[in-house]
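Researcher: Here's the sequence for the chain we discussed earlier.
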Amino acid sequence: MLHNPERAYTNLSLLMTKHTLPNMLDFGPPFQIDGNLGDPAAITEMLAQSTPEEISVLPALPQQWPSGSLKGVRVRGGGKVDVVWKEGHLTELRLQSDHAMEYRMSYGDGSTETRTEPGEPIVLDGALRAIDR
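Model: Thanks. This is the structure I predict for it:
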């Protein structure tokens, strides 16, 4: 399902419609913490995946979510990202970190190297070019 938006969406939809109550808890008994946290984790991974060195944005964005945003998601290495997309394409990516950190930012076939300083956001456009703010 990695980098396969439609399969990820199909599996997420199945999980949400067949195994999730309206309050977003998993059907039980017994209580299933992996089920309760599975839906939001799947959605987050579809929109932002990270390793300590790389952050990949919108790696599995399904066509059913043409526009939207994700705000304040923590990534490995101590960073936090905000992502905005319209008509299925990245429009803005904001990265902020608690400490100096180097990341490779990737979107689609493109990537760029960034270095964060504590509390200083880096803002990139859909082509992963820096935007001065």
